[in-house]
Amino acid sequence: MKIHLTAGARPNFMKIAPLYRELKKHSWAEVRLIHTGQHYDQAMSQAFFQDFGLSAPDINLAVGSGSQAEQTAGVLVAYEKILLADRPDWVVVVGDVNSTLACTLAAKKLNLRVAHLEAGLRSFDREMPEEINRLLTDAIADLLLTPSPDADLNLQREGVAPARIVRVGNIMIDCLLMMTPQIEPLRAWRDFNLEKGGYALATLHRPSNVDFPDALRAAAAELARVQEIIPLIFPVHPRTRKKLMEFGLWDALAGRPNLVPTEPLGYIQFMSLVFGSKLLITDSGGIQEETSWLDIPCLTWRNSTERPITTTHGTNELTPIGETAAAVRRILAGAWKKRGVLELWDGQTAARTAAALHDQIF
Ligand code: UD1
Fold first, then answer.
1. pLDDT tens-digit profile of 207-258?
2. Which of 18, 170, 181, 292 has the fewest beta carbons closer than 10 A?
3. Residue 4: which of 35, 25, 33, 37 has the closest Cα?
4. CB burial class (10 A; 0-12, 13-18, 19+) of residue 336?
5. Distance CA 15, CA 113 (A)
6. By alpha-carbon position, which residue is closest to atom 35 of ligand 1?
7. Best substitution site from 65, 96, 118 to test ligand 1's pocket, by max atoms within 8 Å of Cβ?
8. Closest C-alpha residue for ligand 1 atom 29
9. How big is the CA angle at 115 (ends 109 and 117), to the nearest 5 degrees?
10. Strand partners, 226
């Protein structure tokens, strides 16, 4: 069975890594790794391949940066050529980035089968480009591999036939468990002269938080308040760095005594910092899950989450930016919820995904 595992942007790589490793174990699977090149920097792309011990992609479409349409259309045109030449039995897409939708659309127009891993998540906020990608991908993919019961329910409400839905669990946790032996000994906080549990970690990159001067100014001001309470490490996404500079906010923020801005970090180094942190401040999707699993408080700077299970069963709270310093004080005082039972966050999602792909074809 010829399988294309497709990935494009940073949050995709930790989802394909455990699945690649799993599929490689099975003689029935012939896997090809397709990188769309949506992310292309050492820090945003290659570092992850190195951390996961993944070989270089079999094919790199090298679409690079661009507007929403340019990026999506670039993948569509480039991937169609590959599909016509190779005609895989399955195209596997993961997550919700522009590459996810573009690979799905290219494959379905050629009547090829698509499996979407991490299907069914909905923020119900159509201003997020990712929500559009999720809705359209799930509308046309053949096999919808979901992480949680809420995802199944969302799909059923959208009229998806139950036979297309298979709940496989949370693939991010497979990656975390797979990499824990390498993460644990690193203790990356020592590189910053910090103590385990003695610092916070922040990440920020959503267009709604960083693309507008007022929003980014408010975010920078709150990070400045937080670093007065607890030392703060801030790995800066390229988009965020560009905007902080453009809006004249970079120098003041980077000059705060207790705030350490860094380049975007690789998976092992970043997760090591997560393991040692007291709390996270983020607008990422995946970090809401990783912190929930690790039972570390997470303050999410968004109005909605497509991962509601992290707020109902995890350690995540959607937090207005201006209320963050107060929430940090509550966490330091020990007043924060503990995680509950997170079903199918067990490191077996890649195995269930492989079984689902296998079962659907023979
Ligand atoms: C994309 C995904 C988002 C994901 C995020 C993680 C979409 C719609 N968005 O957003 O869901 O959470 O990745 O990072 O697919 N850049 C570099 N080097 C790179 C890649 C990008 O410098 O390797 C710069 C580009 O110049 C660009 C900016 O970062 O201006 C944003 O990149 P882009 O791919 O447009 O979207 P992200 O914000 O990264």
1. 999 999 999 999 999 999 999 999 999 999 999 999 999 999 999 999 999 9
2. 181
3. 33
4. middle
5. 19
6. 65
7. 65
8. 239
9. 135
10. none
